[in-house]
């Protein structure tokens, strides 16, 4: 979600018109409109952004942070956001480690000695979150899965996903043709563990033993059984016992090759 979209969404949530915002911040309605639609030629000044934060009740400094990120050269911004994504995930990893009974005290003492803070900041909006691409998922028969032994959220490659707030979201590359025509080999699909799964959703499915995964439509049948339904009619559905599955994550975004 762009800076202009974020501003417009918040203004509409507050039931404010552009005229009202214009009168409060002292900038013209047409100029504010070009900011919201992304057609502005001159980026909004820090003065205007600060006034918009107060008028629209944003967290102080949030719009400035997003605007400054958008003004960065793309390669610099990508490097910054990649590091920030890894830092966020590392903080989560250390926080969970510190909460464990065994070894937790040593981890907490280490963090204290080095003055490291594992708590995440309050900001949740950004011009785009970098989601880690952890591996491939088979759109066919279940295949052995390897998450490359990375801590949650850390990987060698990332894909940017605007307005995504789930810190545990992950992406995989599709292999195979059982989810065609909606998903084809080479597509990158983002899954969110925070999103509720319903019958008919396209999901990343993780099995217990053997350690395999697959990508299918999911239907919850009676008797704790789950039907894994391919979209490609050439493939037959598979019904498995619920106890064989230890993770079902819904697809929320698809990136495809053009």
From TrEMBL:
<protein>
    <submittedName>
        <fullName>XRE family transcriptional regulator</fullName>
    </submittedName>
</protein>
<feature type="domain" description="HTH cro/C1-type">
    <location>
        <begin position="7"/>
        <end position="63"/>
    </location>
</feature>
<dbReference type="Pfam" id="PF01381">
    <property type="entry name" value="HTH_3"/>
</dbReference>
<dbReference type="InterPro" id="IPR036286">
    <property type="entry name" value="LexA/Signal_pep-like_sf"/>
</dbReference>
<dbReference type="Pfam" id="PF00717">
    <property type="entry name" value="Peptidase_S24"/>
</dbReference>
<dbReference type="InterPro" id="IPR015927">
    <property type="entry name" value="Peptidase_S24_S26A/B/C"/>
</dbReference>
<dbReference type="GO" id="GO:0003677">
    <property type="term" value="F:DNA binding"/>
</dbReference>
<dbReference type="InterPro" id="IPR010982">
    <property type="entry name" value="Lambda_DNA-bd_dom_sf"/>
</dbReference>
<dbReference type="InterPro" id="IPR039418">
    <property type="entry name" value="LexA-like"/>
</dbReference>
<dbReference type="InterPro" id="IPR001387">
    <property type="entry name" value="Cro/C1-type_HTH"/>
</dbReference>
<dbReference type="InterPro" id="IPR050077">
    <property type="entry name" value="LexA_repressor"/>
</dbReference>
